[in-house]
Amino acid sequence: RKEVEQDPGPFNVPEGATVAFNCTYSNSASQSFFWYRQDCRKEPKLLMSVYSSGNEDGRFTAQLNRASQYISLLIRDSKLSDSATYLCVVGRSQGGKLIFGQGTELSVKP
Amino acid sequence: NAGVMQNPRHLVRRRGQEARLRCSPMKGHSHVYWYRQLPEEGLKFMVYLQKENIIDESGMPKERFSAEFPKEGPSILRIQQVVRGDSAAYFCASSPTGLGRLTYEQYFGPGTRLTVT
Fold first, then answer.
1. Residue of B nearest to A102 (CA)
2. Cα separation of B47 and B33, whole Å?
3. Which residues are CB-contacts of B107 (< 8 A; sequence separation ≥ 6)?
4. Chain B residue with the nearest C-alpha to that of A37
5. pLDDT of residue B98
6. Which of B77, B69, B79 is nearest to B25 (CA)?
7. Which of residues A30 and A83 earns the better pLDDT score?
């Protein structure tokens, strides 16, 4: 079983749609949680850190459920420019290595 | 504030040659990480370094791979006697010094695409 699991997709949605990505992690000692995006296998770019209280940044909302070891990302009013692979990422300790999910591919169509 | 810098961006080596990949962290960052992304696969951690110290090398292959982060200059990932299976994108990331939530966040460089012929 992979330490971080995501639905690989692809998710094909029209512009303006709301799309949700889910992720589960297996190591209960995990301490930090992130969503990154990767375009065409370029460098991953940090989208947002995920906190237990949940956090929002514009059209993006992230949630963390430590009891269920589950992380989610919601994108509202999706844009063409949101097309990318979204990576669920977990860290075990401060300053330590990150464990990446395989990524969920999103394609937003006009 | 320049981001994480990596060079070369593309590197072609014949089987048996050595590959040296360089990474300069963001200003103010003293933690450096190397990750590898094989074709059609996700990113995998290789090694975590601070200046003059290897903190975690649990993801490094046992042979042919080494990494360093000297007191002066960039971090180097060195692959000796490359084989075709080493062809991949190698990404470097850095994170800030100090305490607090922000030190968990890692910022990635553009990567080095290594092709072994």
1. B42
2. 6
3. A46, B3, B4, B26, B29, B93, B94, B95
4. B108
5. 63
6. B69
7. A83
